[in-house]
Design a protein that fits this description.
This protein has helices spanning 8-23, 37-49, 119-135, 159-165, 225-238, 247-259, 269-276, 322-333, 355-367, 384-387, 408-411, 421-437; strands spanning 55-58, 64-70, 79-85, 105-106, 109-111, 143-148, 173-178, 185-186, 192-200, 202-211, 215-216, 290-298, 304-305, 308-317, 337-345, 348-349, 371-378, 393-396, 418-420. By secondary structure, it is of the alpha+beta class.
Length: 438
Amino acid sequence: MADQQADELALAEVVEFTSGLIRIDTTNRGGGDCRERPAAEYAAERLAAAGLEPLLLERTPGRTNVVARIEGTDPSADALLVHGHLDVVPAEAADWSVHPFSGEIRDGVVWGRGAVDMKNMDAMILAVVRSWARQGVRPRRDLVVAFTADEEASAEDGAGFLADRHPELFEGCTEGISESGAFTFHDGTGRQIYPVAAGERGTGWLKLTARGRAGHGSRVNDENAVTRLAAAVTRIGEHEWPLRLTPTVRAALTELAALYGIEPDFTAVDLLLDKLGPAAALVEATVRNSANPTMLAAGYKVNVIPGEAVAHVDGRYLPGGEEEFAATLDELTGPDVHWEFAHREVALQAPVDSPTFARMRAAVKEFAPDGHVVPYCMSGGTDAKQFSRLGITGYGFAPLKLPEGLDHQALFHGVDERVPVEALHFGVRVLDRFLRTA
């Protein structure tokens, strides 16, 4: 905060808001089974109390988004989008140490579904905006704050709806920040690495359908749909995708290699990853396309051969890799299995030599001077994909300073999701510093 001195109320509010948002159950089970409106109203009320005029927008009743604009001091500057989603993935209470929607604060830790994905960042945004209102602070460039629905499914009721139906709300926005970046990664040697996302693999969720000749289970059948599907699924699951280095991943490898005093050899990437040790986890999922079978459905009785069998595959492709991905799926499925995209979104890249990336790096370094900020590419995706339709370049920047032993990536969609209070305080300080200078 101002002169690097934290607004004590902002530090208290980020904890209060994280807990409060967690207590609002916004479980997204897919297929439209979610209601974000109570969380959207919670956020809108706190924005309005800071003197803003938030809009609540819905494509579907109950699937509510919130958008507000903060006017900057430089009208000639491009605007910045700061966005977070309000929905969360399901949680089975019986598996948790605390109830996943309790928002319990215990021993300096906030527990519950959404603690890192991503009600923590929503709370940070609210805390910073309200702190600015108390201090009379305005950013250099316009900030558009958006809290979205439906990120954990198709985003059709969330960022997709906003980008397609309300593009005027994002006028002037050229860049945006959201989840999955600037968290502490401990490499086991005492180094603290802060990866900032400057890219995302594309999303290719696939439906595979095999058709054959239905019949009695006791008879020979060389047109068995289950057999055909199983063979295709096995080929997909066992396929070794070739290495493909995007500019973001190449930059990540270059900076990580320099950190460990290694000469990067891009002709032997797997060997380079071995040399990086635990830090390779930041990169290894993004040097290739991938396709993982996840769901199977066929038949209704053990002695009946069904005429159709269906599988679903979670596919991800690198920027520039979608054509290769599709051609490979054609080969792996073969002539007896049809495949199609059930859900498809673009891969993204953002420049790592931009002034914005430099300011994110500087903001982290101010409050974590021993930390090493590196770019990386997300293996999955965020609402930045939908906002890219408006020409907005997206970065992952939701700062958290985490203690050793707390695996940030494992907490995403995991059991006992939680975030330390001190991590939230760090996040507010870093986000405030960045947004003031962005």
